[in-house]
Amino acid sequence: MPTARIIEQDRKTTQSGRAKAGKWTLEFENDRAQRHDPLTGWVGNASTTTQVRLSFDSKEQAIAYAEKHGLDYHVVTAPPVKLKLQAYADNFR
């Protein structure tokens, strides 16, 4: 049975807005060992589930999807964002 990882999308460090805050992604974990392709030199396997990413608006929707389809899952939350507030003049002390 495939194992899914439900991930909370965190804010990118280059963004100050909250456009994608609260979005959740379901992706499948690799259940087979990867193998080396001698012709191209690439690494991969026959399973295409690792290429699938599903987006959800809430954690509950992602969990409901995983339970409906009989997937084992675990939830990974984003680390809290720590803001360092300072005045512009503090850069020149």
Stretches where pLDDT is under 50 for at least 5 consecutive residues are none
CATH class: Alpha Beta
CATH topology group? Double Stranded RNA Binding Domain
CATH architecture: 2-Layer Sandwich
Distance between the termini: 58 Å
Principal-axis shape: flat
Largest beta-sheet characterization: 4 strands, mixed
Could you tell me the mean pLDDT? 83
Query: Which strand order does the major sheet show?
Result: 5-2-1-6
Count, helices: 1
Beta-strand content estimate: 25-35%
Q: Helix-strand pattern, N to C?
A: EEEEEHE
Radius of gyration equals 19 Å
Q: Roughly what percent helix?
A: 10-25%
- What is the count of distinct domains? 1
Output the structural class: alpha+beta
Query: How many DSSP-defined strands?
Result: 6
Q: In a nutshell, what does this entry contain?
A:
The chain has 93 residues and is of the alpha+beta class. The protein has one helix at residues 59-68; strands at 3-8, 24-28, 35-36, 43-44, 53-56, 72-76.
What does this structure look like?
Strand 3 and strand 4 (43-44) form a beta hairpin. This protein has one domain: Double Stranded RNA Binding Domain (2-Layer Sandwich). The strands form 2 sheets. Strands 5-2-1-6 form a 4-stranded mixed sheet, with helices on one face. It has a two-stranded antiparallel sheet with strand order 3-4. The longest helix is centred in the C-terminal third of the chain and has 10 residues, at 59-68. The protein is 11% helix and 26% strand. It is of the alpha+beta class. The mean pLDDT is 83. The chain is built from 1 helix and 6 strands.
